[in-house]
Specification:
Elements (H helix, E strand, L loop, with lengths): L15 E2 L11 E2 L14 H13 L10 H7 L5 E2 L5 H7 L11 H21 L8 H26 L17 H18 L20 H14 L3 H13 L23 E5 L26 H5 L10 E2 L1 H6 L13 H5 E2 L6 E2 L2 E2 H4 L4 H4 L3 E2 L21 E5 H14 L3 H14 L5 H4 L5 H15 L6 H7 L6 H10 L17 H6 L10
Antiparallel strand pairs: 1-2, 3-5, 4-10, 6-9, 7-8
């Protein structure tokens, strides 16, 4: 069962200590009966497995992929816009997050470090546990390195200069962005050495379980970290390793990457596991997990079309229009458009309702654009108001590996070689052969083409703003002016706002921490 790894999310590793200013008595130190104390845990391989499962648990709360992290990754890009009535959410998309109000970005920061702390407990304690199955021990350690790398990847990528905890001490000094990326790379390297290609065929309690980190996931994120730091040679080598594993392939139906119909498919390198059926109905807003928590996502209600959810995030017209620029081989519109966006197209249905009929009395909505990706909108549910989406969040797809590999080929002087890997992604949606329609592109032209290909393949998946930032478009006056014509939210951008502020709580509790520029 893919949800097996979350059966022990409520495992915690802390002592509840009762103190007063007047009493100093060892008898006041009590064990919380709901938690395992540190000194009585970490004895068996089962403890180790429960410990690593708890590290995955930090992916499920509001600060991470239940809601906040997708918002932080999507809202600033030119494929999305937000007119949320909630100022904290509105401000994310308008480059105006408030240092005095850490809602959303601060929750993410906190949860990344919760996940890092849990991973460090595994990495500190599991090496001393005697396992009957050494391969299981390596898999658990590999997952801990991967997850620490993933949480730190987000922290470094979104907050720039952050602490880099490698132990279970409370305080760690702020480090440079370069030091952060170096640790991310080190963690993914180690993870790739320890993890299996899959959990099919392994022996142990994790045998056959879906959702656990694999060698391909670690290599994919390692390549991505190299790419983000402009180490194109190592990125190229690493992405080729993923391709050569022979494990991954594109699914034939693009939309299968964003519904419950085909989760953990051949295209998925890593995804966060959500389920309506995993037990519990309470939303995981944060803090200590409780037995009533569900394993569900609030992304769907947050992004949902008007009257089916909150409509806090919508696609841009720039995205809609770019889908019109090139027809398929049969003269049709790129099918990724309809998989990504709801709009007034004859026959379009959402949640069992006809789009045109439902919005007939509201011209603004009738002529607007709404998100379709990650929506439970095929008729099984009436709306998203129960806040309980079971759609897995796909963090890394094979299509991304192919296009990032093409990018590294172009950046290392093999522009002609990039064509084949771009075409693999285009073939799925029946687009013409790029080597015929645009032959002989030079490096700069290919860079622009890759930007276009990535824009249409990954909208509303948390990649676009990362691309904008790492390509230096915000520092390029021509590109920034172009972005402003596509998405008015870029008019609010000022230098330094490509990163979020360091939360004030971190500034207060960690002396010496410096705030990011422009905040």
């Amino acid at each position: 069962m893919k949800y097996k790894i979350f059966n022990y999310i409520a495992v915690f590793f802390s002592l509840a200590v009762v103190t007063t200013s007047c009493v100093d008595d060892e008898d006041l130190t009590q064990l919380d009966p709901n938690n395992d104390a540190v000194d009585s845990f970490w004895k068996t391989d089962q403890d180790a497995l429960e410990g690593i499962n708890a590290v995955y648990g930090s992916l499920l709360t509001d600060g991470t992929y239940m809601r906040s992290t997708p918002l932080l990754l999507d809202a600033k890009a030119d494929d999305s816009r937000t007119n949320s009535p909630w100022p904290s959410m509105y401000n994310v998309g308008h480059f105006n997050s408030n240092v005095a109000d850490a809602a959303i970005y601060g929750w993410a920061f906190e949860t990344y470090y919760q996940g890092i702390y849990r991973a460090n407990q595994v990495l500190t304690n599991v090496p001393d546990i005697q396992f009957e199955n050494e391969a299981l021990k390596n898999r658990i350690l590999g997952q801990a390195y991967f997850l620490r790398g993933l949480y730190l990847f987000h922290a470094v990528n979104m907050f720039k200069n952050v602490p880099i905890p490698l132990d279970v001490e409370v305080y760690h000094p702020q480090k440079s962005n370069e030091e952060g990326w170096a640790q991310v790379i080190a963690d993914f390297k180690t993870a790739a050495e320890l993890l299996p290609n899959s959990y099919v065929g392994v022996t142990g309690p994790d045998a056959g379980q879906k959702g656990r980190a694999t060698k391909g996931a670690a290599l994919g994120y390692l390549g991505k970290a190299y790419l983000f730091t402009k180490d194109f040679t190592n990125a190229r080598t690493t992405f080729k390793q993923v391709i050569d594993l022979g494990v991954y392939s594109l699914v034939s139906n693009y939309r299968d990457n964003f519904t419950t119909a085909n989760e953990n498919n051949s295209e998925s390198l890593f995804e966060v596991q959500f389920s309506r059926d995993a037990g519990g109905v309470d939303l995981g807003w944060g803090g200590a997990p409780a037995s009533g928590w569900g394993k569900t996502s609030a992304r769907a209600i947050t992004y949902a079309p008007r009257a089916f959810g909150w409509t806090d995030v919508q696609p841009t017209w720039a995205l809609f229009n770019e889908f019109q620029e090139e027809k398929t081989k049969t003269g049709d519109v790129d099918p990724r458009l309809d998989a990504t966006i709801f709009y007034n197209k004859p026959g379009t249905k959402l949640y069992g309702r006809d789009f045109a009929a439902f919005y007939a009395s509201s011209p603004g909505d009738l002529n607007d654009l709404f998100c379709r990706k990650y929506q439970n909108s095929d008729g099984e549910f009436a709306d998203e108001y129960d806040w309980r989406s079971g759609i897995n969040e796909r963090l890394l797809r094979y299509a991304d590996i192919l296009l990032m590999y093409a990018e590294t080929l172009n950046e290392t002087g093999d522009t002609p070689g990039a064509y084949a890997y771009i075409q693999m992604v285009r073939n799925r949606v029946n687009l013409p052969d790029l080597s015929v329609t645009k032959p002989g592109m030079n490096q700069d032209q290919m860079r622009e083409q890759i930007g276009h290909e990535r824009f249409l393949e990954f909208p509303l998946e948390g990649h676009r703003f990362d691309d904008i930032r790492r390509w230096g478009w915000l520092q390029n006056p021509t590109k920034l002016a172009w972005l402003k014509t596509r998405d008015a939210e870029f008019n609010s951008y000022t230098a330094g706002r490509e990163y979020f502020p360091i939360p004030q709580l971190e500034m207060d509790n960690n002396p010496g921490t410096k705030q990011n520029d422009s905040y």
